[in-house]
């Protein structure tokens, strides 16, 4: 049965109307949908330490990888043979993070899937594998699969008995293959861009570790040519002073900085978030950290304010250079956990968990190795260049993802 609704974008040569079919028509007639066995069929006492047969879990669908944690005997595998996975099958997460789908690759270990997974097996005579996975991953299908129950805020996977009856629109197999291959190439490009971005981030992480002296060392492992002198050991209190310069009213409404995000936003928004209206002046190059003296704090949240001058809530302790320093150098130096770790004190929360507590006085007492101002400029500029390259690659990745999203909206109905 055809329908007048057609996709906005089509490949040349395809003019036939897309057909309306029940979802189950796309699947294998004998074993198209199967949910994992009841939990009682795969209890932990059935798991063994040494076997060639494994159990596939929800994480395999969510992260699209096929590493496994548990093994079962060959006897148990044969008992659950109707739940085995074969190359080309699809597994979809059915609990927790729901609706994520993955295609089972070749050469997987023989194994069965557990109760948190749903196996889909397509009818290859009328359904293209690549088209099918792109179709399921598309936003409109994800929303449809994970729709909340009426009157409930809880999101659940729609029962497969309903999904099989859904009316969906599908093109002929040849057009499916064209669309599937197009999105496969786009996915490969996105994956390549993601790998480039990850490599850049790892490269920056490596340089951060090697361009600042390790504890007890007088020089870093990696230096720019021409710098040979030892770095000086100084207390941060010798480099910074705590300032509580109150706002004199000279800052406009657009110069507030949010406590949570450290970006400029409207004061009405700040006040609506119950942020104290008493404010302190923050200037370019100041270093601030979020929170009360005893507030929970995570590594890496120290900030060099490189977005201009403004005012912040008194919930931000602010430190200002006593003399000229390279702002970028300090931004990266203070990101290092080995520098920041001594500033934190471990405390036990009411729930019994260990938590990092930050005491501002510890910041001023902490000793660090400091480079000359010329070497600071070199290090700061170098790491800033890496950060800008990372940001550029991130924008490219975001653009690719938006491009794919746009095509998905225009090439499916």
List keywords for this structure.
elongated; alpha+beta; four-stranded antiparallel β-sheet; 413 residues; 33% helix; Adenine-n6-DNA-methyltransferase TaqI, Chain A, domain 2
Can you put this structure into words, describing what you see?
With 413 residues, this protein is an alpha+beta fold. It has 2 domains: 19-170, Alpha-Beta Complex (Adenine-n6-DNA-methyltransferase TaqI, Chain A, domain 2); 232-369, DNA methylase specificity domains (Adenine-n6-DNA-methyltransferase TaqI, Chain A, domain 2, Alpha-Beta Complex), CATH 3.90.220. The protein has helices spanning 58-63, 74-79, 129-137, 139-145, 160-163, 173-210, 236-239, 267-272, 327-333, 337-340, 360-365, 373-411, and strands at residues 19-22, 33-35, 53-56, 70-72, 90-93, 101-103, 111-113, 117-120, 167-170, 232-235, 240-243, 256-257, 264-265, 279-282, 287-288, 303-304, 310-313, 318-321, 344-348, 354-358, 367-370. The strands form 8 sheets. The protein has a 4-stranded antiparallel beta sheet. It has a 4-stranded antiparallel beta sheet with strand order 11-18-15-16. β5 and β6 form a beta hairpin. α3 packs across α6 (173-210). The protein is elongated, with a radius of gyration of 29 Å. The two termini are 15 Å apart. Mean pLDDT is 83; it is low at 258-276 and 292-301.
